[in-house]
Amino acid sequence: MLSLTIQQAWIRESVHRKHECIDCHTVYEYVTGLHPVSGTSANGRAWSIKAADMCIRCHYEKAAQQKDSIHAALLAQGNLRVPVCTDCHGAHAVGSHAAAKTMDGVPCRKCHAEIFGAYRQSVHGMIKGQGSNKAPLCGNCHRSHDVR
Q: Model pTM?
């Protein structure tokens, strides 16, 4: 079962803090207060994939880039484990662009822990770990949205 609980702190600390709920959740019914689900989803993951489509309305350039990515190709083949917008950026606690440029904030490490561990031990990872902004992170070579 999916939780509909949203902490106010998530929104207040999000880059989307100035948005209203209905900016993304256009199907919310003010009169009844219901959160209708359009269509059905087999499980929570399928719902997350479908819900990530809400991001496209404002971030269409990033969505267009993502369509050429390995993640999109794997999703089209039926692999439901590949990341969608909300897996890297969050759904309500959307972090800043700057946070993703840090060792602790780079979202790639969530799914690619083994590769990220090797990166940490590399010359780039050691320099980045010392706080340098000059050392590349994952997205510098593999790109962030049209991941190759």
A: 0.78
